[in-house]
Amino acid sequence: MAMKKTPEKTILRALAGETQTTPPIWMMRQAGRYLPEYRATRAQAGDFLSLCYTPDLAAEVTLQPIRRYGFDAAILFADILLVPQALGADLWFVTGEGPRLSTITSDADMAALKPADDIHDHLSPVYETVKILSQELPSETTLIGFAGAPWTVATYMIAGRGTPDQGPAHALKAENKVVFETLLDRITEATITYLDMQIQAGAEVVKLFDSWAGSLSGDEFHKYALLPAKRIIAALKEKHPNVPVIAFPREAGDGYIGFAHATGADCVAIDNSVSATWAAEYVQKDGCVQGNLASKHMVTGGQALIDETRAIVDAFRNGPHIFNLGHGITPDADPENVALMIETVRSC
Question: What DSSP assignment string belongs to 189-206?
C-alpha cells in the first residue's frame, strides 16, 4: 500500500496535522485598506463591488500582500455578501457605513430568491479570479477560497445591514422559524455550490467565516452554526476529499471545543476572546488551530506586539498551528507592524 504523500506547502502541512518548528502565517483581510497599493487599485476599480467582480483587479489586490510580505497563503479577494446578491438580493455599499441589502423576512421575499444552483453566472467573475490566482501565485503559496457561514450571511439578509447584536435575525427566528430556517437552508445550499466551484477553479483550501456565531448559544449554536458547517463540509469532502476546510465560528467560546471533530473541519480558527493557552489545551487536541493575535497590535505595534506574538507561537508549539489574527486587520493598521509580526513569528 502506497504511503500518503506529505504536502509541500507549509499551510497544507499544518492542515494535514503536522507540527512545524515555525508556523505558517497569513492574515485575515490581508488584502485591504491598510495598504496603499490596495487603495490605488480600489480607486482604479471605482467602487468596492466593481473591484470584487473585475477578475484582473481582484487578483491584483490578492497578490499585493504576497509580494510585499511573502505570506504563506493568499486568500481570494471577494466578500461574503456576493452570495446573497447572486441569490437575488439587492446589494450596495454606503461609504463609511458598510453594506446594505434588501431584506428577507417573509414567504414572499423567499419566493423571490433564486434557487441555490442558479448562482453561477453571477459569480463567474469570482471563479475567474481564482483561476488567475492559481496560475500567478508563487509555487510555495497556498490559495484559500472562502464563503460566509449561513447564520452570519442570514443576519445580513434579514436585517439588510450589519447589526451590533444580530437582533433582527434573532427576532425572525423566534417569530417565523419557517422562513428563517428556509433562508438558512437556501444559503447553505448556495454556499456548497459556491465553494465547490472555487475548488474546481483552483482553490486549495476553503474557509467558512461565521463572524456572528458568538451571538448563538446552547442548542441554537448547535443547530444554526455547527450543523450547517457540518453539512457544508460533508458535501465538499464528498466531492473533494483532499481539500482542507478551515472553520471560524468567531467568539464561540466553549463552542470551539470539539467543533472540528463535530463538523469535519480540518482546522478551527479562533478569535482573541479566548487565550492561546486555553485553545492549545482544549481545541488543538483535535487538530490544527489558526489564530489568534488581537488585531489592535497591527495598529499599536511595539514590544507588546512582539511579546504577544511570541506567546501565541509558544502556546501552540506542540501541535499543528497556522498563525493569524483573531479577526481581520483594520484599515488603520500600520503596514510596518505587519512586517514586524511576520519577522517575529519566523524568528521564534
Answer: HHHHHHHHHHHHHT-SEE
How does DSSP assign 210-278, residue by residue? Answer: ETTGGG--HHHHIIIIIHHHHHHHHHHHHH-TTS-EEEEETT-GGGGTTHHHHHT-SEEE--TTS-HHH
Instruction: Find all residues with CB under 8 Å of 230, minimum gap 6, and list them.
Output: 262, 263, 264
Can you state the percent helix, strand and coil of the chain, rounding each to 5?
55, 15, 35
Could you give the angle at the alpha carbon of 138 between the alpha carbons of 137 and 142, nearest 5°? 70
pLDDT per residue, tens digit, the chain (348 aa), is 344 456 789 999 999 999 999 999 999 999 999 999 999 999 999 999 999 999 999 999 999 999 999 999 999 999 999 999 999 999 999 888 899 999 999 999 999 999 999 999 999 999 999 999 999 999 999 999 999 999 999 999 999 999 999 999 999 999 999 999 999 999 999 999 999 999 999 999 999 999 999 999 999 999 999 999 999 999 999 999 999 999 999 999 999 999 999 999 999 999 999 999 999 999 999 999 999 999 999 999 999 999 999 999 999 999 999 999 999 999 999 999 999 999 999 999
Element (H, E) at 174: helix 167-175
- Give bridge partners of residue 99 from the DSSP assignment: 93
DSSP string, 24-80: -B--TT-SSTTSHHHHHHHHHHSSHHHHHT-HHHHHHHHHHHHHHH--SEEE----T
Residues 348, 338: Cα–Cα separation, whole Å: 16
What count of Cα atoms within 13 Å lies in the side-chain half-sphere of residue 206?
Answer: 31
Kindly report the length of the chain.
Answer: 348
Mention every residue, 6+ apart, whose C-beta is less than 8 A from residue 174.
Answer: none
| Spatial CA neighbour of 152 closest among 249, 70, 72 | 249
- For residue 193, CA distances in Å to 93, 228, 234, 263 come to 25, 14, 13, 18
Residues known to be catalytic: 29, 33, 42, 79, 156
DSSP state at residue 90: -
